[in-house]
Amino acid sequence: MYWNMFWLPNADLNWLKDYWMPGQENLKQSYPFSSYPDNPYLIAYEMLNKSNRDALTGNIQATYSFTKNLNLMVRTSLDLANEQRSQQRPFDTEKFNKGMYRAQSIFSKEATSDFLIRYKSKMGKDADFSVSGGGSMLKNRYNREDNRADSLLYPDIYTLANRAGVLDSRPFKSSFDINSFYGLATFSYRNYLFFDATARNDWSSILATANSTKNTSFFYSSFNASAVLSEMFKLPELISFAKLRASFAEVGSGELDAYKTALTYDPVANFDGGLQNPSELANLNLKPLRTTSYEAGTDIRLFKDRLGFDVALYISNTRDQILKARLDAASGYSTAYVNAGLVRNKGIEIAANGAPLKSRNGLNWNVTATFAANKNVVKQLTDTITQMTLYNGPGSRGAIIAKLGGSINALYGRGYERSPGGEIVYENGSPKLTQEMFYIGNTVPKWRGSVGNRFQFRQFSLNILADAQYGAVGYSLTSAVHAEQGKTKNTLPGRYNGITGKGVIRNADGTYRPNDVIATDVWTYYNNHYGRDNVEGTSYSTDFIKLREVRLDYVLSRALSNKLKLQRASIGIYGRDLYTFTKWPAFDPEFGTLNNGNIISGFELGQFPSTRTFGINLTVGL
Amino acid sequence: MKRLISNPVAILLVLLALITSCKKDFIDLNTNPNAVTHALPRTLLAPTLTDIVSGNMNRSQRITNELMQVTVNMGDTEGKIFRYDIRKSEGDYLYNLWYAQLTNLNDMYTGAEETNSPEFKGIALICKAWVFSLLTDTYGDVPYFDANKARDGLFTPAFDRQKDIYTDIFLKLEEANTLLMNAGDVLSSSDPVFGGKTALWRKFGNSLYLRLLLRVSGKAEMNVPAKIKEIVEAKASNYPLMQNNSESAILKWTGAAPYVSPFATWRDADWYTPKLASFFVDNLNEWSDPRIQKWGTLYQGEYAGVPGGYPPGQAPVAKSSLSTSLMTEPLLGNIMNYAELQFILAEAAAKGWIGQSAKNYYEAGVESAIKQWQLDVPSGYLTNERARWDDNYSLDQKMELIHLQKYYALFFTDLQSWFECRRTGHPFLPKGTGLLNNGVLPARLNYPVYVQSVNPENYKAAVASQGPDDVTTNVWWQRP
């Protein structure tokens, strides 16, 4: 997708359709405009990634009741999969001049066995209680045979036998077990007081080191209480339901790939017995993360359920979060697994629904709304680190940096050099950029919300759903590259006769005067403003309001349905992702960049256009 | 069954038995079957050298060739190195590569200590000296004494002054020379440069010593002339040097995996994109130097280049480019060749630091540089007006003669010709009017931008001590 930004915007796509040079099919690619990016038709039709997967899932469960109140459940389940993958690239492509063929055979297995003993009983007339205890055992096994021929003898033949060099074989195995014991107790009194408690201990092999299993075990518990006030007391007529709840919960996790707790050397492909250090530093004392959260909430419904609110407030502390921190390469490694001290999340979640109009034969109108806001603060990192780079932007322009007191999703980068008065400093007509990186904004929105409306009149119903997010920024490589190439409108002013930027110039004596130099080198001018090196100028608000879905349905009248010998029938039209109100310069302010299986927010690196969907829906009940 | 369940002691015992087995086999299970925990020195050497030389060639093509007017990657977009427009991100690649490989070289040294192998200790020290010299010559002050200690918990190494780095590099090279004095050979397949012959490593180490002594020779406190005299004359038998072309340090790309040139997988179209510069082509044409036939492509029946540093919007007609046969050329894996050593000695002699004749060294350099490419030196080459040595020339004229030839001997050798031009101002490069940086050859690469955020305190200290982190700041050995 990155290369697509470089295509000529006003060239005929048909010129690309014959993607081989005439007479040199499968040997010479045709690129009428530029030899940098591969021809997109060639990418679509010749660079194939194939997959063939057979999977089997099964489980067996048995329950034995010792008495009416005591039973035992035993269960085992198995998930098996065998997958054949291959990737092929033709000759004369950017990465593989002589073609490529790779094939992987993957076997994966996950077996889980668990048991649960349950005992429930009454205490007196008004109280119920239950106690259960159980355990589980999870075994995960993964085995991959990976053979690669990164150059081929003959074009257009994709087999390992057609390799031009030595076959590069990279087998990979991974195993881990997670064992657990847990217990749960619930107590209820007269259908209006509820209390439950859980306790759990996990043992995860992923945290075992070469000589110790002390970090593999972690215990966590939770307590949850709620009271239905409307059942306990006689409340005013207008309150139809009221509930209060509070909880304390701990969660532990060792979520990670296996083998991150020992220093090892990786074999190097093609070298006889060659070894090399990996670029990520293992952690010989990796601890499980623990999250402790407190939550309080209420659920209130008024006017015979015509109006309802569910409000929740929470605060959670995550300790020892397992993060892959960027290191200065001069330390010998580019990343390290660390347990990051303490990150605190605070937030509120509100869900509301109302029915402003309600009538049997007239217009019905229902509204549902949600709102969620969250703020996170880094309270503590490790003993030796006061700031941690979690992700580096493209060409290390911009980074997600967790600093003490800041957010874990904070975007930093170079930007405009400013005068003490906060104005942009110009030099030779073009804006001057700082050498240092500074805080640009948060990449995770302050809040998200949605509003759904449903109108119903007789057999017609109309649904309109819109949602929004607010308060985050993102770095857009798409807009930067387009601006560098003069493909965006914001690079038009002064293109032919120069432009004087709004800002100041530094005088020789250190004072500033308003910028009075016309930039005739407009390319440098706009490159400094909107080019990729200016992280501040290339970061845009990701605020949006999206019209998520509109649908109109018509339900056939019972009489008509009966005549057609149908139970019921409805027909409807719908459209999804219809419109986005946003200042985001690229396709969609909702984006994620995939990095080694993790989605990184904050950096848009050549996104695909998102799609708009329309459809007709016909439902028939026989 | 009922009785068993209701007996609390029995339940407790069963639970206890289960819990103790909860961690059973965990250590075995979490032992990585895809990797090994120990590495003998001989397993590390070949992949490390291959990665370093590949990366060096890659940047030689991208950076050195452009700065030194070997090629001109024509175009008017930003980041055109031939116009001295160097992106902030340009410094990342080599910094990351070299330090990553130093981790392997350190392990090679410790592995050699554990297995009591002076051979690999010596080789590791020479390789480290080489890589650290590349680092400091490229960036100036860099982490040295604290580098590569993340395993000990040191994530943010301090930057050391270039002077201290060079002083220690010289100690390491002395130590390597001693270690390899009576050393045996190592497994030949483990060493793609010298086939395991430690005597050749020793000669390379001492030749590298001379290269680096010369680099800091502008700093009087380093006492370079005396040391060079000691190596070349007073204690010559203690410091064996490369004797001929076959003793050059070259990772020759045989074409058989893993020794495949990093350019072999390039598309011809990408290789042809940078065009040869006039400076590079014209000298070879004037000397009737046969190397141009191996290095360049013909344009309308002749070898012709484009002027470097032309302003945007005034693109000249593109002419010759680098020959595609270079994409698989074994000799591009050059680390340090015999010809370079001769030019080093020629400069030392011309400056009067050693007694032998500069002319002899110069001519030996010229001849071996051409012969290295399996070519014959054309008759009359050394009497040609522009290649002829004259003892009556001024030192500046002699330096230009030596360094112009040395520039070609350093073809595709990491960033060496740029380092040498920064040090001496030779060869004298014509300056186009489109050059940025006021037409001054960039003096260094900036540190990777991410270092500001991952090692902020030490970065700030380095900038405070060395000067602004940009390409105009001179490194220590460049300063007067």
TrEMBL record, chain B:
Record keywords, A-Z: Lipoprotein
InterPro entries, A to Z: SusD-like_2, TPR-like_helical_dom_sf
The keyword Protein biosynthesis is assigned to this record: no
UniProt keyword annotation of RNA-binding present: no
Protein name: SusD/RagB family nutrient-binding outer membrane lipoprotein
Organism, as annotated: Pararcticibacter amylolyticus
